[in-house]
Amino acid sequence: MTNFTTICQNFEEQYNIIAKSSGAVYFIIFVVNIVMSVTAILGNSFIIGALRKCSSLHSPSKALIFSLAFSDLAVGCIAQPLFIIHRSAALTRSYRLFCISGMMSNFVGSTVVSASFVTSTAIAVDRYLALRLRLRYREVVTLKRVIIVLFASWSASLIWSALWFWDQNVQNYSRAVLFCLCFATTTSSYVIIYKKILRYRCRVAERFGNAVVGNFSGRRTFNVVRFRRSVSSMCHIYCCLLVCYLPYNCLMAVIRNAVQLTSLTVALHVAFATLVLSNSALNPFVFCWCIPEIRLIVKSTICRFQH
């Protein structure tokens, strides 16, 4: 188990670089974090409220989206404020606060961000199973089983985050493994889904003609058109997550192989970490854009507040 002094020594190099840096750049980053934190809190609160009233989504799918929205809400409520305190402590020359808030920020941030990433992977697998199982989907993918999976993923995220206090190298390498596994699973799931839907549409078009593809799908128990829309919605969430997460993970790979930190790498680390956390503020907008019923419920809720 790494002791308090050793952990603080790991923060020392970053502290010295930030303390000597221009405060203007970090001030802009802090303002962005504050705006994104407030947006994440409000946006995900609306999404969680809308999920309770949304009837078009299957209960397991609702549970997965709820888990994603909850982790995003936790980012806005806890992770981003701790991140702001941690970095601003260096500018105010408060080394002890920098160290303590850094430990808390790393633990909370790692937990909710990894839970969010794993949940996004679970959503992709859920959509793959919906296509694979067809009419057996509701029989196999039950709310109880999804809750067990979510509980296991959150528990694993907590344990993985706690590794940071024991051995930071183990956690850093396991982060790379986790990212690659989730990336490979999610990407392959969406690619397989896309190919199967494309093959299905081509087969129907050859048999009945292009004009009736949509109508043919609509008359079947397994509604391919509706399924395609749900996959498209979740795929947009995944693409948004990837854009926010990929730069940070690439930078971490560079930092691990670097001899020493520079002011540029530290500034990029803070900026890319902000991008990761900002994903929590962007997701509610993607949900509203891609899922019409959620958009209407959120819109009506906002209208009630205005009146």
TrEMBL record:
Which residue numbers delimit the G-protein coupled receptors family 1 profile domain? 43-287
Q: Which GO terms describe its cellular component?
A: plasma membrane
Q: Is Cell division among this UniProt entry's keywords?
A: no
| Chain segments annotated as transmembrane | 24-51, 63-84, 146-166, 172-193, 235-255, 267-291
Keywords associated with the record: Cell membrane, Membrane, Transmembrane, Transmembrane helix
Main localization is: membrane
Protein name, entry field: G-protein coupled receptors family 1 profile domain-containing protein
Where is this protein localized, as stated in its record?
Answer: Cell membrane
For whether the record's keyword set contains Transmembrane, the answer is yes
Q: How does it sit in the membrane?
A: Multi-pass membrane protein
What organism is listed for this UniProt entry? Pocillopora meandrina
Q: Which GO terms describe its molecular function?
A: G protein-coupled receptor activity
Q: What Pfam families does the entry give?
A: 7tm_1 (PF00001)
